[in-house]
Structures are given as C-alpha cells and as structure tokens.
Design a protein that fits this description.
Layout (H helix, E strand, L loop, with lengths): L2 H18 L6 H17 L6 E4 L16 E4 L5 H9 L4 E3 L7 H10 L12 H11 L8 H10 L3 E5 L5 H13 L14 H22 L4 E11 L5 E3 L10 E3 L6 E2 L7 H4 L4 E13 L2 E11 L1
The protein binds S-adenosylmethionine.
Length: 300
C-alpha cells in the first residue's frame, strides 16, 4: 500500500473518529469557535481570497458568511463533500497535507520496519531507536502552502483548530506503521526517545507553518488547543501568564496536562505581528479530556 493512500486513509479515520464523538458538552465551544471564525469571514476583504486551514466538515465554520473566494484546505478526501452536506456550499478546496511533512514521516516509519538487505522484520525497539535517531535530520518545509499563498495572496488566513492535530496525527501514523507491534517504551517511568523525537519533529513542523503565516502579509486568525487536561477537573481560567499552565485554576492541586504544541507558545512566536484580540475558553471534549482553546486575531 502506497504512502499517499495510507495518508488519505489516516485522515479519513481521524475525521470520522472526531465526528463520531459525543458532542453533548461541545455547545459553548462550538458557539465560541463559530463566532470567532464567523467574524474572520465577515471582516475579510471580499476582493481577496480567504484560506481556511483544517476546514474539515465545517462543524466550526459558518460557511454562509464566507466570501465567494474562500478556499477550504483539508487533507481528509471527504471534507469538501462533508462541508457540502452540512452547508450546501461546494467550496474551492485543497486536499493535500499543508505541512508537507507527513509523507516523509510515513515512509520513514515503514522503511525502518524491514532490515536492509534482508527480508526480516527489525525488532520494534531497534526500529523505534533508529527512527528517533533519524528524525532530527528532517527539515519540514510547507512548500505547497507557500506556493499557494504566493499565487493567491489571501487577505485572510484562518487556522481552524488544526495545529493541535499534528502531534496526535504523527503518533497515530507511527503506531500504524509498527502495528501490530508497539513503537513505545513500555515502562512509563522511562523516557521514550521516539516520543521525544516526535515532539521535536512536531515543534519544527508547527514553527515552519507559523513562519509561512508570519510572512504571508494576511490577516491571521488562529484557533487551536493550548493544552489538554486528562482528568475530570473543575477548571477556570485566570490571568494570561507564561508558562501557560499557570493560567489554570483548579480544585485539584496537581493536574495531568499535556501540550499539543510541544513547547511552542503561539503568542510569542507571532509577537512580530499585531495581535488585535485574544480569547480563551474551556472545551470539555469527553470523559477525562478537557481542552483549553486559544483564539488569536492578528492584523497584517
Ligand atoms: C479538529 S479538526 C477541525 C475541525 C474543522 N475546523 C471543522 O470545522 O469541522 C482538524 C482538521 O484538520 C485536518 N488536518 C489535520 N492535519 C492536517 C494537515 N496536515 N493538512 C491538511 N489538513 C489537516 C483534519 O483532516 C481535520 O479535518
């Protein structure tokens, strides 16, 4: 099975898993997200193109407010059709991976399963170690996105809840390549070199995207997971502070938190742009999974 096919299948599987989740407690998140993206679409200059990265099936996108020249970009091959079914809008669409990084990751993860020159499986720990050693030499470069921006010169780019997907997608891709074996170190108290390398890979991919957005000359609207709390806690948000976990107010003293943007603070990364508005809210995604969502608005 080729890498292109595997990528498409992975994006469809992840999309269906997202859409199949119970949305019982998603109401206020969806209202905030639609309001934020709706304002981006309404403020957009209708004479220029608008780009929505991670447009998905349009759960968070009020397409009725989108100017005619609005493009969706989503690697899920069913996303344009899903958007049509939800909004009756057959939008302009780009279907590729806008990071241009996943195909290489997938090929490497598969190639390492087999020992060179021998038709034999490499033991999983050895394949994982080798992958951890090779990943740092990758230099992600979102060439297709850069070329698209050069050609269309969009007035507005909306990053629609997609940056936090890169890390789980990379983990999933590697797990599938190793299947039925596992790539991870079994003992959770021991550092996992492959997980560390994948986090660094993710950070490089996110930075390469932010770099392209920073230089785009467009108004930028960023909607993303700032963090994920893996327990059912009574949460509230305090002052904006750095490091971001200190923004959380909780009844529990120690929270089990993960960072979907490993080590990257988007506010800091984009501090050369003018941030017009910033907002945050709490999104209870499911049992023992609470997302802290950030919405940042930048003017070119
Ligand atoms: C959490 S969903 C966002 C939902 C979407 N904003 C909506 O309104 O339905 C993330 C979306 O980003 C897409 N995606 C994730 N990584 C991508 C990538 N590297 N290139 C293109 N699309 C990607 C997924 O297919 C998915 O549709």
């Amino acid at each position: 099975m080729g890498s292109k096919f595997r990528l498409k299948r992975l994006f469809i599987m992840e999309q269906l898993a997202f859409l199949r989740r119970s949305r019982k407690h998603w109401g206020s998140h969806l209202n905030f997200a639609r309001e934020f993206i709706g304002s981006a679409l309404q403020n957009a200059n209708p004479a220029r193109s608008v780009l929505i990265l991670g447009a998905g099936w349009g759960l968070e996108i009020p397409w009725r407010s989108a100017p005619i020249g609005t493009f969706g970009w989503d690697a899920d091959p069913l996303s344009r059709f899903g958007t049509y079914m939800r909004h009756r809008r057959w939008a302009h669409w780009m279907f590729s991976d806008f990071t241009d990084a996943f195909a290489e990751l997938d090929k490497l993860a598969h190639r390492l399963q087999i020992m060179e020159g021998r038709w034999a499986l490499r033991p999983a720990p050895a394949a994982a170690r080798r992958m951890a050693g090779l990943l740092p030499s990758f230099t992600p470069s979102p060439k297709a996105l850069e070329a698209w921006i050069r050609e269309y010169s969009p007035g507005t780019i909306i990053c629609a809840n997609v940056l936090g997907q890169i890390k789980p997608m990379a983990y999933r891709m590697v797990e599938l390549a190793f299947k039925p074996r596992t790539p991870w170190v079994a003992d959770q108290d021991i550092a996992d070199p492959l997980q560390n390398a994948l986090d660094e890979w993710t950070a490089k991919v996110v930075r390469s995207l932010l770099n392209v957005l920073r230089q785009s000359g467009s108004d930028i609207y960023m909607l993303h997971d700032r963090g994920v709390v893996h327990q059912d806690a009574d949460l509230a948000l305090g002052e904006w502070t750095d490091p971001w976990p200190e923004q959380l107010r909780a009844s529990e003293s120690a929270l089990d938190i993960s960072d979907p943007l490993p080590g990257i603070d988007i506010l800091q990364e984009l501090d050369s742009l003018s941030c017009k508005n910033k907002n945050r809210w709490i999104w209870p995604v499911g049992a023992e999974q609470i997302h802290i969502v950030e919405a940042l608005e930048y003017r070119s």
